[in-house]
Amino acid sequence: MNGYRSILVLLCAATLSSCGKEAFQDITSALPGSQVRFFNFSLNAPGVNFWANDAKVTGVLSSTGVESTTGTVYGGVGSGGLYSAIEPGTYALSARISATTDKDVAITTLQSAVANGKAYSYFTSGVYNTTAKSSDSFIVEDPIPEQFDYSTPSVRFVHAIHNANPMTLYAKNTTTLTEYPVGGAVQYKAAGAFTAIPQGVYDLSTRYAGSTTNVITRTAVSFSVGRVYTIGARGDITITSTTATNRPFLDNTANR
Question: Whole-angstrom Cα distance, residue 186 to residue 124?
């Protein structure tokens, strides 16, 4: 785990090298003991950069080598899905507009403590209010096992759909047709437990308690041994279009 974190710190430092003096750039001292990954899952939200107190921890480089005004757009993960390493402590974690207009205006701020040796995922969520320039957010711990398990992948479910009831994630192996519940029912702004399932290709679905009807589906998702994955539900549960940007969607991001 320490070697893994070292690689991420170096990569994140490279990503942030042009983001200004606010970014974490010192990689000569001891590694910070906490890790946070940032998702922009707020419906209709602008592109954002993520901050911890007054330090910018994610940014996107443009082709000219300066910070892009695009930021992390809706459905995206900051720093290419990598964790940002920060010192343990209590922070005001915020998502701030990356565009030139309203530059660095915070659309959501969440006070949260991050502990030494632990990893977290921070999500913007809900619906972006264009008048108030505000949104919702939450944070969950990512209890990634310290030791690699090369015999099986592990998967967990995070619920980030503001207008959906608690849901359970199911994974159906496309070869054996065996279906596995991935933990239990998860409510909005919460995460289920990491669950070990056999390596393979899976069709994913979520269901409400007591129902056999799929609420959200995604096909042909591969899970490999030794890897840890988060499946995050985002979007508007009322949309039935299969192509709309804000449709309910199951996002797959590797924690390790």
Answer: 17
Residues 11 and 91 in one domain: yes
* Closest alpha carbon to 224 in 184, 245, 196: 196
pTM of the model: 0.86
Write out pLDDT tens, residues 128-156.
999 999 999 999 999 987 777 889 999 99
Specify the CATH number for the domain of residue 45: 2.60.40.1120
Within 16-80, residue ranges assigned H as helices are none
Instruction: Tell me: do 19 and 124 sit in the same domain.
Output: yes
According to DSSP, the residues that pair with 253 across neighbouring strands are: 230
Neighbouring-strand partners of residue 73:
none
**Cα gap 51→48, rounded to integer Å:** 10
The CA R_g of the chain, rounded to the nearest whole Å, is: 18
One domain for residues 101 and 165? no
Q: What's the distance, Cα to Cα, between the start and end of the chain in Å?
A: 9
